[in-house]
Design brief:
This protein is α+β, with helices and mostly antiparallel strands and about 300 residues long. The protein has nine helices and 13 strands. It has one domain (about 10-300): Oxidoreductase, molybdopterin-binding domain (Sulfite Oxidase, Chain A, domain 2, Alpha-Beta Complex), CATH 3.90.420. It has helices spanning about 10-15, 15-25, 30-40, 65-70, 115-120, 145-150, 190-195, 250, 295-300, and strands spanning about 55-60, 100-105, 110-115, 125-130, 135-145, 160-165, 185-190, 200-205, 210, 220, 235-240, 275-280, 285. The longest helix has 11 residues, at about 15-25. The radius of gyration is 18 Å and the shape is globular.
């Protein structure tokens, strides 16, 4: 029987990279219902009930992580580098009005209100495994819409091979951006076929409520077969591009964070093993699953690739 208590994670597994590297440097039909649920959201990112949710196709049988852990144990460096820092800003990020600018290699570039961006799509609840590069994991009931149909509305051209995303840059609201550990704003990217895959979710909520500040309000990407930092939060810009885009973590420490960043137990992080993980709320460790357990759905995307070289 698993014992539900604070996870015994080694300090080496949870030391934020910003701390680690800074020390080194210092020392050296549902559309209407969906609209009703989202447009009811307040100006700031406090959780509000979502309406019109339907159960999605992708739901794992694993026991979900508690809402308290999901909302109080977070990586969101824009609000601080400790896991507890982001929760201290809950409800303080202004999320309305909020627009997303979509451009690059597409026929219909536009700047779209966040609610209009997702309104035509069915709002689904999906229960996904969520794996962090620091060897901990969660199981989260995410609420959102498939990313692929949203991107298709802008008609990417034949030159579009990748999708680049950007997080809000606002040091007044996001005090972590005042620190110079990283080249802000946060940027992330996916290959176009990864972004279009049915598993990839544009999340607007979790546990049946709108996203809170610490979880990436008002919308974020969720890519469940990749490490958590690929699931960019608080998105304000999307670009279709021909060449592999710059991403924050890959630029910051390319030997530690590859562009693809698929969950792969055979490729260790230079500072810890990825062969096992500890699920938040559990005592025992468990083996890490290839592609986080989604290999049947996504392994074909990487046919012929060397997943140790293209990590």
């Amino acid at each position: 029987m698993l014992i539900a208590r604070a996870p015994d994670i080694r300090p080496s597994e949870i030391t934020p990279a910003a701390h680690y590297f800074s020390r080194r440097r210092l020392l050296a039909g549902t559309g209407a219902m969906l609209a009703a649920g989202l447009l009811a959201a307040p100006d700031h990112a406090r959780a509000e009930p979502l309406t019109g949710l339907v159960k999605g196709q992708y739901v794992v049988d694993d026991k979900p992580t508690s809402l308290d852990d999901v909302t109080h144990y977070n990586n969101f460096y824009e609000f601080g580098t400790d896991k507890s820092d982001p929760a201290g800003y809950e409800g303080k990020l202004k999320t309305r009005p909020w627009t997303v600018t979509v451009g690059g290699e597409c026929a219909k570039p536009a700047t779209v209100d966040v609610d209009d961006l997702i309104r035509p799509n069915r709002l689904e609840e999906r229960v996904y495994r969520h794996r962090c590069v620091e060897a901990w994991s969660m199981v989260i009931p995410w609420d959102g819409v498939p990313l692929g149909p949203v991107l298709q509305r802008f008609e990417p051209t034949s030159k579009a091979r990748f999708v680049a995303f950007q997080t809000l840059m606002d040091p007044m609201q996001m005090p972590g951006e005042r620190l110079h550990f990283f080249d802000w704003p946060y940027t992330e990217g996916l290959r176009l076929d990864e972004a279009m895959h049915p598993l990839t979710l544009l999340a607007v909520g979790l546990y049946g409520e709108t996203l809170r500040t610490q979880n990436g309000a008002p919308l974020r990407v969720v890519v469940p077969w990749k490490y958590g930092f690929k699931s960019i939060k608080s998105i304000v810009a999307v670009r279709f591009v021909e060449n592999q885009p710059k991403t924050l973590w890959n630029s910051f420490a390319p030997n530690e964070y590859g562009f693809y960043s698929n969950v792969n137990p055979t490729v260790d992080h230079p500072r810890w093993s990825q062969a096992e993980e500890r699920r938040i709320g559990e005592f025992l460790r468990r083996p890490t699953l290839m592609f986080n357990g989604y290999g049947e759905q996504v392994a074909s995307l990487y046919a012929g690739m060397d997943l140790k070289k293209d990590f």
